[in-house]
Every structure is written in C-alpha cells, then in structure tokens.
Hints:
This protein has helices at residues 16-26, 101-106, 113-118, 122-125, 195-199, 209-212; strands at residues 33-43, 50-58, 62-67, 73-78, 84-90, 95-99, 129-136, 139-148, 151-158, 163-170, 174-183, 202-205. The chain has a domain at 29-119 and 172-233.
Amino acid sequence: MSHRFMFMAASLLAFSTLAQSTLASAAPKYEEVAARYVTTTCAIPCDKPQNSSWYFWRGENRVEIRDGSSAVGEIWRRDGKGRLNFVYVEPARQRGIEYNATDLRIINHKRPWDRLASIISPAELKKLSPAGDAEVLGHKAQRYRGKMDQRTVEVVWVPDLQLATQVINTYPDHQVTTELESFLTQQDGVMATSDDQLAEYELVDFADLGDMETNASMAWLKQATAAPGHETHEH
Length: 235
C-alpha cells in the first residue's frame, strides 16, 4: 500500500505577517478520526476486483496510515512551522525508519498536509461539481463529480470532518475506489501508535540507512522495500 501526496507553500515577504494570519484563520481544524478504509482496484469491466483494507488515524498535526495486516505503516507529523516529518514503521516488529523534511525533499516524497489529513484536498474538491447530498455513518455528506486529467472523479465529502469518505477514480481501462468502511472503536482493538510506543521502537535515520544495512543486526533494512527511498541505498 502506498498512499503518494506533495506539499508547497509561498508568500510575498512584504505581506507575510498578514498572509500567515489569514491562512491561520482560514485553516481547517481537524477533528480526531480513527477509521478503516477499503481500496478496490479492477480492470474495466470489473470482473476480478482486488481489495486492500487499511487504517487511518488523524489528529490536528498527525496522520497515521497502516495496512490491514498492521505489517507496515507510515506516520506523518507536522510541526508549528508546517514542516512534515515521516516515519516508516513495522508495528508488529516495533521498528522503522525516520525521515526529516530534507530527506523527504531529496527523495521527492513530499506530501500536502491537507490531502494527507482529508484523503482528497479541498483544492482538488473545488475542481469538481456538486452532485447531491448523502449521509455517511450518521454524518451529512456532499457528492462531487468531475474530470481531472484523463479520469472521472467522484467524491463523497463530509464537511464537518473535513474528510473524503469515498473517492472513485475511473480511468479509460481501470477503476480505483477508496471508501470508508467504518469508524474504529475501542472494541476493534486497533489503536494508533502512541508517541510513547514509538519511543520504544528501533528507529533508524534515513540518512544513515546505507551504513546501517552493512550491520548484520540490521539486516531487516534490506527487506524494508516498502520504505520510500529504499532503492537509493541498495547495494
């Protein structure tokens, strides 16, 4: 699983204070969300759909995504200046690889925060046309539809959560559907990785990855092929 996004921001120096104030007041507030999504991919006509489930946890400045087996995941964190850092994690083995903002820029793995936090960004949503109302698990929702590049896009958007609960991308030869399956509760027994838990993980800095792979005790790094930029350090 891979989920792929970009982050860019700019402002004129003369109006930086005003611009930052305006952006701060206009920035959406992200309520905490814990959910399970399913992504379905199939060729058209859709005879043999392939399904993959994944977990999604969101806080004001933190997003964690984990595959349905909890084998691998990714944690994105945003600091007070809007800079992102990223951790590739293997929760079952309590280990991972840390990337700072510079690392993400070098390997071109930057992501826009609003898309990470909302599945589809509000800017992308504005390119689509309203297509009616809906309801999703007790939340009022809005449908959108339109064209982007070479695909038709359909979205179900929950305004009070600032969250897409369904995104259908239809290409000429295949379709990819991502849909909210359920909100998680304590009874599901699946929790986001806490900072205390992450502090107990065996974490490697991405910048040190090449050197660490030669250490016999760190042989697992060579198998961490889902980690972004991994190919950069292959021998």
